[in-house]
Specification:
Shape: flat
Structural class: alpha+beta
Radius of gyration: 39 Å
Largest sheet: 11 strands, mixed
Distance between the termini: 35 Å
Strand content: 15-25%
Number of strands: 26
Helix content: 40-55%
Number of helices: 32
Amino acid sequence: MALWTMILRKMATNKWLQLNLLLGLTVCVALFSSMPLYSGAILQRTLQKELGQLQLQKNVYPGFIRIATSNSAEIMDEKTAEAIQKADQFVRSIPGRTGLPALSFYQQRFTQKFKVYGSDASELEQKTQKSAGAVKSLSDMEQRVRLLAGRMPVDRTDGIIEALVTDSFLLKVKRELGQELTAEVSEQTRLRIIPVGVMATDAAADPYLSYMTETDSDGFIIPFGQFEREFITGGKARVSDMEWRYALDYRALKVEGIDQFVQADKDIRRYFKGRIGAAEINMPANETILSYQGKADKLDVMLLSLYSPVMIMLAFYLYMTANLIIERQKNDIAVLRSRGASRWQIMTAYMLENLLLGFIALTAGPFMGVQFTKGLGAANGFLEFVNRSPLEVGLSGEAYRIAAAAVGAAILLILIPAFLATRVSIVNQKRDSVRLRKLSFWHKTGLDVILIGIAVYLLRGFNTRQEDLRKLALDSSALQVDPLVFLMPALFTLGAGLLVLRLYPWFIRLIFWLGRRFWSPALYHTLIQISRSSGQYLTLMLFLIITVATGLFSAGAARTINDNMESQIRYSAGADLTLQTRWESDAPVVSTTALSAGGAAPTGDGNSTKRVQYTEPSFQPYRELAGVEAAAKVFRKENARFTAGQKAVSGKTALYGIDTLDFGKTAWMKPGLLEYPINSYLNLIASDSSAVLVSRSLAEAARIKPGDNVSLSWDGLDQVPFIVYGIIDYWPGWSPLPAGGESGTDPDAGKPKLIVGHLSSIQNRLAVEPYETWLKLDSSAAGKEVYAHLTEMKLPVTHYRDATQELVLSQNDSFRLAINGIMTLGFVISIMISFFGFLVFWILTLSGRTLQYGVLRAMGISFAQLIGMLISEQLLTSGAAVLIGAGIGSLSSRLFVPLFQMSFAASEQVPPFELVSRFSDYVQLYGILGIMLLSGVLILGHRLSKIRIAQALKLGEE
């Protein structure tokens, strides 16, 4: 009890430092516990969204499972019946195997098809009758079909089988309800079947698994129990096929249950493979779910690397706070050691003290982690938030396990200063207290140089790999975002900050020496103080350097990734909405699919071809669509032929036919891709109907320049000459890179080529063929409205691409959400840590200088001069740290942000990957930092004004 009393009194004496230590531990717990919470929540959200998209795109319920198998046995013996029964038992275990509850289930059995005729049929009718049908059973038949006439069949044991049939089957057998039919199983075996009801599909019976009677309308459906007795165990006829269908509740699928689902899928396929016959397993969601296997581990690794800068800051903060506490208690520790207390007794006291703080942090931290996770889900960019639905987050055992491990590691870290202090005797402690110039650990070991060396080595490795990917035209999309891309700048920032702080005291001494004759007393005192006691400012300045540098890197990285991904989507689409409609033509019906691309239809003799004649529909309805700001006709022909140059070079080229005015209003083009703005090129060719723009790849291949002629044709058309007015490198919707990367593999094709001309001229001089409709929307939400109007107007749309929806899907990608959210959260935590560290450091520093400031006031230094000393000290420490951090952050961004292009496929890097920064990001970043520092200075100034000279001098006398 005495030990706890001493611990609590000691904690009360340093209550503000203890509270800061508790804050650091709590944030540490929250940070680590949020990792599994966020990983699970974001993957859960994206998984459910992708499964929902599967239902919309393919019109199939994501939880649907269909198992069908044939029966390879020639006769229905006991062994076959037992195999079928075991298969039934296995199928009933599927919900338990997948971990998903069943919303609906039914099974079917089928016999082979028999010849069917009326029992009263004449011998001639029996011979000429060609109708055939199988006997089938359907579980829960009464709830799954709709009766059009008659009644439900009953299970009879008198040799007669009652059945449901479709209306079309009754017409085929030429009989009415209630009339007995004969199914001829073999020459010796006949089945007597009486149709007692006419059935149809009941779509409302089951919203998940509707039984479609039209799928196999020929045959009889009999009670399930009777089928089992007569055919499975009775063996009256060979059962040829079996089928089981499930609708599982896919919304109950959790990320942690993916492995179980995938294993269940393997078990199902393995069980039915050749066991009864040829099996067919259909699980539409399997591919989507399988893509998430292992994704949680990858995301966890990336989260750890994203958190690495703020983890480093937290470690410094905890160590700094613990060190400040120990510094204030070193005399007490030295006295205890001199009175016979062992090191382990002292360490036990500190261990219990920190365990108490760790327990409190472990209690509150996970709940703070839940709030962190919800905040991460709303991030849409660096320090950008949107009104997105909150993530569904729940605390888990894994989160508590990780949090407990983090608390344990943090306690070990903050015990280090205490352990070191117990090694010092009271004599050594008094001697060291007056030695201010003591080399720190990183000074002695050269940690700064080591960290920079590691970062530069990794950077060179990544640059080499990136160059190899570019040369070999490899696809790097499978890399996603390499975690080292985030770890490298953290190591570089820490190393560079330590290196600059190694040199900074010498810089201060140089400034002092250069102006030693001119400095005012206040500034003279400040320069002496900083140059002689630079070690005490190390942690604070390092905090600010890492905060600013990390903030700049995060802002640049998030902005660069977001803008490049959005630019790729917009450039690839060409406009907000692009759609293709079906045109009327004289093409044969069999050639409709082939002719949608504008080809020629065969006439039937196999030797000659006849060009399809198209009728151009009215374009005005697209201009009048609500929500559409501009519309343009864009004719694209991918396999046109050109001939150009003195050597008559020919080859394939993509051809664009546009209306220059409408195209300029509608198309999206990233600024800076062309030598001049795109509208300048459109104006250049607007006045001449024979003017065209050609790609640089075509101009270099044919060695042509503006003013030369180029001839165009396709599909047997006569070549028509056009005049080259300009050379372009990029154009909306056209990629100058081959599909394999930067260097083509087909020497005949080379790099993709492009010619842009007037649509009217192409139609008049070559041919009229279907073109695309490009639409520019007046708002991002207009896409649904336009689609609804297109449906309402019954326009024959055959292809539809919505760039705005692709942007939304891209913004909801789990890895992109992680990057945006954690970079923002990391910066906010860094700011918070820096602010509290700033206040703790300076409040304790001012408290330690009370006597010094009192003496200075007594010597005639005014309060304004004291404030000037404080401000100059702030500028030379905190201000300098911000400037150093800005320089390191800018350098880090230039070095490491370009590595993010490795997360994009080489063939998709159009427009080229570009480092993006916006002035608003810097204003926001420095505004937050400015508010933090100004608030700190005002608090310190207020405390400084409360110092009483007489009390300080009296304290000095004592």
